[in-house]
Amino acid sequence: MSLTFAPATDAAIPLYVVPADGRDAWLDSQPERVRIWAEANGFDASLGKVLTVPSETGALALAAVGYGDAAARARTRFALARAQAALPEATYRLAGDLTAEDRDEAALGWLLSRYRFGRYKGEGSPGAALIAPDGVDAARLEAIAAGEAFTRDLINTPAADMGPDALEEAIRDLAGDFGAEVQAIVGDELLDANFPMIHAVGRAASAQPRLIELLWGDSGPTLTLVGKGVCFDTGGLNIKSGASMGLMKKDMGGAATVLGLAQTIMQLKLPLQLRVLIPAVENAISGAAFRPQDILTSRKGLTVEINNTDAEGRLVLADALALADEAPPDLLISMATLTGAARVAVGPDIAPFYATEPALADAIRAGAETVADPVWQLPYHAPYEEMIEPGIADLDNAPKGGFAGSITAALFLRRFVTETPRYAHFDIYGWQPAPAPARPKGGVGQGARAILQALPGLLEL
What we know:
GO terms for molecular function: manganese ion binding; metalloaminopeptidase activity. It comes from Psychromarinibacter sediminicola. Residues 308-315 form the Cytosol aminopeptidase domain. This is Leucyl aminopeptidase family protein. The chain is of the alpha/beta class. The protein has 2 domains: 13-114, 3-Layer(aba) Sandwich (Leucine Aminopeptidase, subunit E, domain 1), CATH 3.40.220; 142-459, Zn peptidases (Aminopeptidase). The chain is 34% helix and 20% strand. It is built from 16 helices and 19 strands. The protein has helices at 23-28, 32-40, 70-74, 82-86, 100-113, 138-156, 164-178, 189-192, 196-202, 242-245, 253-267, 313-326, 340-346, 358-370, 405-414, 448-459; strands at residues 13-19, 50-54, 60-68, 91-95, 129-130, 181-186, 210-216, 222-227, 229-233, 273-283, 295-297, 303-305, 331-336, 351-355, 375-377, 395-396, 423-427, 431-432, 442-443. Strands 6, 7, 8, 9, 10, 13, 14, 15 and 17 form a 9-stranded mixed sheet that branches. Strands 2-3-1-4-5 form a 5-stranded mixed sheet, with helices on both faces. Strands 11-12-16 form a 3-stranded mixed sheet, covered by helices on one side. A hairpin with a 5-residue loop joins strand 11 (295-297) and strand 12. The longest helix is centred in the N-terminal third of the chain and has 19 residues, at 138-156.
């Protein structure tokens, strides 16, 4: 689905953005019939309240959306996006006194609200359209929306149609759109190429495991993105319950999010060299499945004791991160739907992240605040290192006790990044559990806009 702004037209319906404390002043500026109509319809300018006003002939003349007060706006991201679903299908132009930041959020939220996942039942109408507001970078917002739509489509597609082979095909299609290069190491070739943990996790599935690499750009600073591509996770021999397995098509949400970010970077033609690494597997059950108490030797040479086959994401990421670290980029970022502990800590709406440098963390936080993409830094807490050291191997993939699960997973991954100074890891959820403005129930990207916003300062673009 194309998430773009409508072409400018004089026939566009004005959409007034009215804060609660400016309602009376706005009404005073309108003709008497508008004031009477607003009063009759109880338009109080509360956040998200929509008013449509007919002309004397009954056609839609104008619309207004309440902007509430500062306290209400602080509790709702993309508040104005509520209007997109509530308004009659037409083309609108924003009217009202909004800050540049508010215009950007309103415009992006509107685009994201037009997303529909229609692979299996048709997309349906995307609803009301918006002309790009004055002062916004329309091309940038459209690129961000396109990347987010790609992420959502990948996550929303069930594993029967989005296994490791289909994910590779999607990446090749993406590369073809932007002139990028793709190569993949598949099946037993992973052993020959020294990716033993990717192979071990995926070898039990009918679709062969693989490491997919996308390369784009030939000049500028280097950025490597690594995304967990577990296309379905049964839990392996430590099988999940039915309830816990229900959303496991989203266990490739890290891969989907970095691919959406990669699309945005390429569409915007940012002056950098991009490398994307996706270890794509299905954690399945068969006679070939890896077992609890197995000890795997990683690409890095570190040995890993398997104490839970359901902690597989860190295993495939570890081999991919080791490869990334062999040619240290200027910035390395990994994203994964890695731990339930992260969800317990911050809920589904916030993306916790870890950073090896304070300046890197500061840039990500600042970017997140600017683009309404909430993140929260968690610590690489050194005293917990002993929790991931089992005694008979270098590392434990599932420390006992359940404490600090997201932190111990991040510490595990950091052991495979020893040559790259600037490394950030995101432990995302990748799923919107209930509809919200600009975010329908289903797959969702997290952290990508924050990273994109931070890149110019981090890489001196």
